[in-house]
Design a protein that fits this description.
GO terms for molecular function: transmembrane transporter activity. The protein has 573 residues and is mostly helical. The chain has 17 helices and two strands. Helix 3 runs antiparallel to helix 15, helix 9 packs antiparallel against helix 14 and helix 13 (405-436) packs antiparallel against helix 16.
């Protein structure tokens, strides 16, 4: 009776939604996400300049603040996905996120046009600048917080919300249609990123902050308007519960049943399984978690229909294996954090501002637009690897993707070490040139040094990130069941959040230690007096130590798991 009523409810919902969704909703969703990406990513490249110029922050303090902002934005992505799946539903989550970003960007724009919302400019004959008041800092942080909330709610839910509109199991071409949607979605995101680091940054550099921040706010107005206009056309799936809740339930249930001797419960009948699950028993590793799915008292723990009475006391074998998958992934996932820390540093913009950035005599590349080199290197390398190197490498390695995911992650760490070392060498040369030219006390002076010096390190970072992202997501996907493929991208986003926190801690620690006793900080706003090159050498050292750590984890991973969760994939087959 229960299954029949559920089928009737699904058929009823399908008939209600049959006139909604479909391709007609795609322009609304893709335009919403593209405008949000264009607006938010357009703020990041030059934000450290805005903070150091108008809020009189030191370079290290501004970098720490931006790292914390990035960590909050990425960390809230998991929280937004949890609320969307458990309570709000994806439509409400995307709507709340988009409106929150709009309000945050409007507040940020107001700081450029209302003088009372930011500190007074430094006087020509002042020895020190006016500090930021608590109210002014609170308004700035409020804008950052609202934008972070918007990012956390919008990004993890937007792509899934679009897939909901195309989900139709009766259509034989449904899988191809959804795959096409993903391609167009990511293509639009790529175009938005390119426009953000070129057009938006150019507007900020040449037309000032008032117009430069007004454009992202206007884009968010368009984003909100377009998304809400399409509301009558959307399929709005109800929240069904979050995966993360199930992981917590396993931990709690295993703790509550810590008195059970796992070795005495080897009978398949003692484990609780979902009716449609092919998993008969939990795996042997992380055996302490197996207690969560052991049935102690069927009369107390199970309902008459066979379902669990309290999911915080008894979990299914599948839930236990999901948590184990997560724990298996953690060591290899953690090897990528230092690379992300190095890629995410914002100090390079101060180097660019002191270099000759002219391409032609009449055109100068904005300092904040050099991230385009990383994007171009990423794109070219992915295409080159997929179309040319994969067929060649697969003949020798026997791997269908040329190199295994773990091998690509290792290569990314080697390239990361090379990029940070090259960054340190370039900064040493730049700083020596500045001192020789007599610009030690003039950090804004432009040297007779071409911007081309910075191209190799940005290109290396682009190739390293391409290797790392694709390799990491494929590795995580190979360990998790197919039903949890989206968890791979969530883990990468979570890695960005942790890397930003590590970066903020590292920058703060280096600034405090090196400035002790009245010394000039390595990360001083005047990079000609500071030692940014020493900081890059420190990152190189940490990257090398991280590479050794990767080798240890790699040996353990290949020996124990061989890159696959055999239990899951055998069950799925």
């Amino acid at each position: 009776m229960g299954n029949k009523s559920e089928q009737e409810e699904l058929l009823l919902n399908h008939s209600k939604n049959s006139r909604k969704g479909g391709l007609i909703t795609m322009p609304f969703i893709i335009v919403n996400e593209s405008c949000e990406k264009l607006a938010s990513y357009g703020l990041l490249p030059n934000m450290i300049i805005y903070l150091t110029t108008f809020y009189h922050m030191e370079a290290a303090s501004a970098s720490v603040l931006l790292a914390l902002w990035t960590a909050l934005s990425n960390g809230l992505g998991l929280f937004g996905a949890f609320l969307s799946d458990s309570y709000l539903g994806r439509f409400r989550a995307v709507a709340i996120g988009t409106i929150s970003s709009l309000i945050g960007m409007c507040i940020l724009w107001l700081t450029t046009i209302i003088p009372q919302l930011r500190p007074l400019p430094c006087g020509q004959y002042q020895h020190g600048c006016n500090g930021t008041t608590a109210a002014q800092l609170a308004i700035l942080l409020c804008s950052f917080g609202l934008i972070a909330i918007g990012t956390g709610f919008n990004r993890p839910c937007s792509i899934a919300f679009g897939a909901d509109q195309l989900e139709n199991k009766e259509n034989p071409d449904n899988e191809r249609l959804i795959d096409s949607y993903f391609n167009w979605y990511y293509a639009s995101v790529g175009v938005s990123l390119v426009l953000a680091v070129t057009v938006i940054v150019y507007i900020q550099d040449h037309f000032g902050w008032q117009i430069g921040f007004a454009v992202p706010a206007l884009l968010m107005i368009i984003s909100v308007s377009i998304f809400l206009i399409g509301s009558p056309l959307y399929i709005k799936a109800k929240a069904r519960g979050s995966l993360f809740t199930g992981l917590f339930q396993v931990a709690v249930a295993a703790f509550r049943k810590r008195h059970i001797n796992v070795q005495l419960n080897n009978n398949d009948d003692c484990y609780y399984r979902e009716p449609e699950s092919n998993l008969l028993e939990p795996s042997a590793d992380f055996r302490c978690l197996n207690r969560a799915c052991i049935i102690e008292d069927p009369h107390m723990e199970l309902k008459p229909d066979g379902k669990v009475s309290n999911p915080w006391n008894l979990c299914s074998v599948e839930q236990v294996e999901l948590l184990k998958c997560f724990l298996r992934v953690l060591p290899m996932w953690s090897t990528c954090l230092i690379l992300l820390v190095a890629i995410g540093q914002t100090f390079s913009i101060f180097q660019m501002m002191t270099m000759d950035r002219h391409v032609f005599s009449l055109f100068e590349i904005p300092a904040g637009s050099f991230g385009i080199i990383t994007l171009i290197a990423w794109t070219i390398w992915v295409a080159l690897y997929d179309r040319i190197l994969v067929p060649l490498l697969s003949r020798y390695t026997g791997h269908p993707t040329g190199l295994s995911p773990v091998s690509r992650m290792g290569i990314s760490l080697i390239l990361g070490c090379m990029a940070t070392a090259l960054q340190a060498i370039t900064e040493t040369i730049r700083r020596n040139k500045a001192i020789e030219a007599g610009f030690e006390d003039d950090p804004n002076a432009v040297l007779n040094m071409s911007w081309m010096w910075l191209v190799p390190q940005f290109a290396l970072y682009g190739v390293a990130e391409a290797f790392n992202v694709v390799g990491q997501i494929e590795f995580i996907y190979s360990l998790f069941p197919k039903s949890m493929s989206s968890f791979a991208s969530a883990m990468y986003t979570f890695g960005l959040a942790i890397a930003s926190l590590i970066s903020s801690f590292l920058v703060s620690m280096v600034d405090n230690v090196t400035s002790a006793g009245g010394n000039t900080s390595w990360l001083a706003s005047n990079i000609n007096r500071g030692h940014l090159d020493y900081f890059y050498w420190l990152l190189t050292f940490l990257s090398f130590i991280n590479l050794l750590y990767f080798m240890v984890v790699y040996r353990f991973t290949v020996h124990h798991h061989d890159g696959r969760n055999s239990l899951y994939h055998e069950a799925e087959e």
